[in-house]
Amino acid sequence: MARKAKDGTPNANSVPNKDIIQRLNFLYQASVYLNGVTSQSPRRRKRVTTGDLSRSYVTSMKVVGRKTVVKMDPSVKRTICKRCNTILVPGSTVTIRANKSASHGHVMAYTCTHCKTTRRIPAPPGKKVPSEHAVFCGQEQVEADGAFIV
User: Fold this and answer.
1) Buried b vs exposed e over 16-39: b needs ≥16 C-beta within 10 Å?
2) Could you tell me where the DSSP H helices lie in 86-143?
3) Spatial distance between the Cα atoms of 39 and 54, rounded to a whole number of angstroms
4) CA–CA distance from 41 to each of 53, 93, 112, 114, 140 (Å)?
5) Which residue among 46, 71, 122, 133 is the one 20 to 30 A from 79 at the CA level?
């Protein structure tokens, strides 16, 4: 009994775990949207704000991904704070600095404004720094040590 050989190329619509990936995508998009929307209710009573709801969506996205063993794309992981699960948006929820590094040339330092956690991602000299990190909304400053504050 021989195995049947696969005929042709695989179907593009047959993605494994498609429903789970769609759910993760929805949770991420909803979290990004809620993070950008300001809360309209007054702060008299302790209520759940849109930022809190955004963080809970990211938490549930991480739980679903962990339970179903679906790996998130690194570009999605880089936009989420590991400590407080806030969506990192340059200029509002994260400050970005380009620091010099001996081993990598430059290192991008992302500091969450909610929990003050810093994440350092190498930016090798052979690769061009993405334009979104270079200058964001014209808010570029240079410190004495040569570090850019965006």
Assistant:
1) eeeeeeebbeebbeebeebbeeee
2) 131-134
3) 12
4) 14, 20, 24, 20, 33
5) 46
